[in-house]
Amino acid sequence: MSARLRYSAAGALAAFAFAAQAAPPALAPSFDLPGARLADLRGKVVYVDFWASWCGPCRKSFPWMNTLQQRHGPAGLQVVAINVDEKREDAAAFLAKVPASFTIAYDPAGVTPKAYGIKGMPSSALVGRDGQLLWMHSGFNEADKDKLEERIRAALQP
To answer: Per-residue pLDDT for 2 more than 80?
Structure first.
């Protein structure tokens, strides 16, 4: 994300979620980034996470996403975390301290978070096996984990 457009801390802490029932189903915005292409993941449930090295809650979400990938990967889940730092070195320093056992993609221009309407870090989207955007969520805290994982398990059902 460019320095001109920064995500607010308040936006990162404000949690909101909406289900696909609230709006007609729509295809998730496609992305083709260094590290991941959404089209290559068709047939999988994709948990797309938007993060930045300066994001405090991101440090807490990464261990949880490692667990998600390990626990639900065999059932068809793929976690893709899209970094929005302008400098890849900043992302590398973060990942050296908080390793990821899932796919990392890079979007320093911030095109993908803009396409998803992201307002704060971290934010996430769940994409169904058919490419439909199932839901979005902003923020991360311990209280959200069970509800988020419940939605992921539901999306993984045949």
So the answer is: no
